[in-house]
Here is the input.
Amino acid sequence: MTRMMTTGEAADYCRLSVDFLNKARCFQTDGPAYVRLGRSIRYSIDDLNSWLARNRRDCTSPDHAERPVP
Here is the structure.
């Protein structure tokens, strides 16, 4: 079973703010997948790692900002 994290724990794990994760969830932007359990939100480590890997880049230049790392 994958460990599930609260929003605060997930934010710490990804070195993001809780506000970023809340906004990504509310506005349905490209944030990590989450699970809603009643009123609680949880993030799995596997989903966080997958999301981090998908958003990895090797260059900050605007010409290459959308190019993922192979």
Summary: Helices lie at 7-14, 18-26, 45-54. DSSP finds three helices and three strands in the chain. The longest helix spans residues 45-54. Residues 4-54 form one domain.
